[in-house]
Amino acid sequence: MARLSSLSLPGGLTVSRLGFGAGRITGDGNWGQPPDRDEVLAVLRRGLELGVTLIDTAASYGPHVSESLIAEALYPYPNELVIATKGGVGRDPVDDWRPDGRPESLRADCHGSLERLRVDQIDLYLLHWPDPTVPFEESVGALSDLRDRGKIRHVGLSNVSVEQLEIARAIVPVDCVQNPFNIADRKAADVLEVCERERLGFLAYFPLGHGSLTREHPTLERIAADSQSTPAQVALAWLLQGSPVTVPIPGTRHVHRLEENVAAAQLLLSADQIAALDALS
Predict the structure, then answer these.
(1) How far apart, in whole angstroms, are the C-alpha atoms of residue 110 and residue 56?
(2) Cβ of 59: how many Cβ atoms within 10 Å?
(3) What is the 3-state secondary structure (H, E, C) of 249-279?
(4) Are 106 and 114 in contact (CB under 8 A)?
(5) Cβ(36)–Cβ(88) under 8 Å?
(6) How many CA atoms does the CB half-sphere of 277 hold within 13 Å?
């Protein structure tokens, strides 16, 4: 399998054009331990072998499970590996996925991630979700402070609008944005446009639409059959060819699915195929 190409982010980080989303390596619903721990550890190690140098995780995945599994599988980390993690979302069985952008919460999340990942500095740290009860500037200011104190090297934002991205960039250098984006969900197209113009990385999460794009999608199935690929590979290739700053971050618990996803980077869609996929919006 050919080596993955790479993308250089503004602050100097270089990542593979296809990353790995580590939310899926926990239990169902991003809660608790995975059903097959050994398989998950094998997935993480195989990703490195295939040239995946960006792993995206978060304190809230598990919670705390995903980061701990990454450290168990890969520590000590190779120099080329970039681990991106996120803070600013609280979780419990009653109030699931609760934004918490208070500076004290972000500091606590960051310190917990440092401990679980077994590092002194996090490569790329993202605000997981803007908190409507906390001024956005305060949340971003906390990340700027963590950067100034050497706890994180680079700052990113997740689930943000163009306006929020502009506000944040006036406070601290921002290297990337992570928003949902796929063939069926292009609501973040305006954010992607800014990232292209400013050469920021755009980490596309849910690139396969929670898996829905891999099942019973006539156009994807037709193009997959014509190109001797799979619908998932077609969906990922469309993202990779659509923008030079897009880094899809599909996740999986299975080695064979990981290998299928990474192989999508070698699939070259024709202009007619891209036009047919573009028309699905």
Answers:
(1) 14
(2) 26
(3) CCCCCCHHHHHHHHHHHHCCCCHHHHHHHHC
(4) no
(5) no
(6) 29
Is 202 inside a domain boundary?
A: yes
Q: Give the model's confidence band at 5: pLDDT under 50 very low, under 70 low, under 90 confident, else very high.
A: very high
Distance set, CA 111 to CA 39, 94, 146, 240, 274 (Å): 28, 24, 10, 34, 43
CATH number of the domain enclosing 252 = 3.20.20.100
Q: Which domain holds residue 121?
A: 13-207+243-264
**29 within a domain of the structure (yes/no):** yes
Tens digit of each residue's pLDDT (9 = 90 or more) over 40-49: 999 999 999 9
Just list the catalytic residues.
61
Spell out the residues 6+ positions from residue 137 whose beta carbon is closer than 8 angstroms to its own: 167, 171
Cβ atoms 152, 124 nearer than 8 A = yes
**Whether the model pTM is above 0.85:** yes
With a CB cutoff of 8 Å and minimum separation 6, the contacts of 20 are 44, 47, 52, 54, 55, 56, 249, 250, 251, 258
Q: 268 vs 95, 235, 260, CA distance in Å?
A: 43, 12, 15
Sign of CA dihedral 68, 73, 75, 78: negative
CA dist 93 and 6 (Å) reads: 39
Cα torsion angle, 125, 128, 134, 135, sign? positive
CA distance 268 to 168: 36
194 domain residue, yes or no: yes
- The span from the CA of 268 to the CA of 227, in Å, is 9
18 falls within a domain: yes
CB count, 10 Å around CB of 91? 19
Res 93 pLDDT > 90: no
Q: How many domains does the chain have?
A: 1
